């Protein structure tokens, strides 16, 4: 079953690269009492993710936060080391928090798994964006396979 508007985000553990190394982040703590803009990408350093998806959220971060969002989070089925290196390479500078879903546990629980085995990528996340208020999904924009039309920063900004 795929998550829908009105559903609570399932409990899962993500990992963030910090100056002290990998740090576990629970979804319960991440979303409790806060408004969080979330977007997911099939993979760090992949073409659309690096050229358009992440940069759009970095560029529009101030406008998104000005609309009442406490934090912008990017999730990918990569490890925390890759996510940390991608953030540095993309110059996110604290505007977007990059969280690794290394085993795809959250992605599976959301029902948003993408089978990239035909491309040598294994199981990954579908491309999507969502707005989560106090742990509940209030907006959800899931892309069709291969598309980048509804999960961009501008679309989510317009929904705020």
Explain what you see:
- By secondary structure, this protein is of the alpha/beta class.
- It contains six helices and nine strands.
- The strands form three sheets. A five-stranded mixed sheet has the order 5-4-3-8-9. A two-stranded antiparallel sheet has the order 1-2.
- β1 (13-18) and β2 form a beta hairpin.
- The model has no long low-confidence stretch (mean pLDDT 93).
Concise summary:
With 160 residues, this protein is an alpha/beta fold. It has six helices and nine strands, in the order ββαβααβαβαββββα.
Show the helix and strand layout.
Elements: E1 13-18, E2 21-26, H1 27-31, E3 35-41, H2 47-59, H3 61-66, E4 71-76, H4 80-90, E5 97-100, H5 105-110, E6 113-115, E7 123-125, E8 128-133, E9 136-142, H6 153-159
Parallel strand pairs: 3-4, 4-5
Antiparallel strand pairs: 1-2, 3-8, 6-7, 8-9
Active site: 49
Protein name: Glutathione-dependent peroxiredoxin
Catalytic activity: a hydroperoxide + 2 glutathione = an alcohol + glutathione disulfide + H2O
């Amino acid at each position: 079953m795929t998550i829908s508007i009105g559903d609570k985000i399932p409990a899962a553990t993500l990992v963030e690269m910090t100056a002290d190394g990998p740090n576990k982040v629970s979804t319960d703590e991440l979303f409790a009492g806060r408004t969080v803009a979330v977007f997911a990408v099939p993979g760090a350093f992949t073409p659309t993710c690096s050229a358009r998806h992440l940069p759009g959220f970095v560029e529009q971060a101030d406008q998104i936060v000005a609309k009442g969002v406490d934090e912008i989070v990017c999730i990918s089925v990569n490890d925390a080391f890759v996510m940390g290196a991608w953030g540095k390479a993309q110059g996110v500078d604290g505007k977007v928090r990059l969280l690794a879903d290394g085993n795809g546990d959250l992605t599976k629980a959301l029902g948003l798994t993408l089978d990239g085995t035909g491309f040598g990528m294994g199981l990954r996340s579908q491309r999507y964006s969502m707005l989560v208020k106090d742990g509940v999904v209030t907006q959800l924009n899931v892309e069709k396979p291969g598309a980048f039309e509804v999960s961009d920063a501008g679309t989510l900004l317009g929904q705020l």
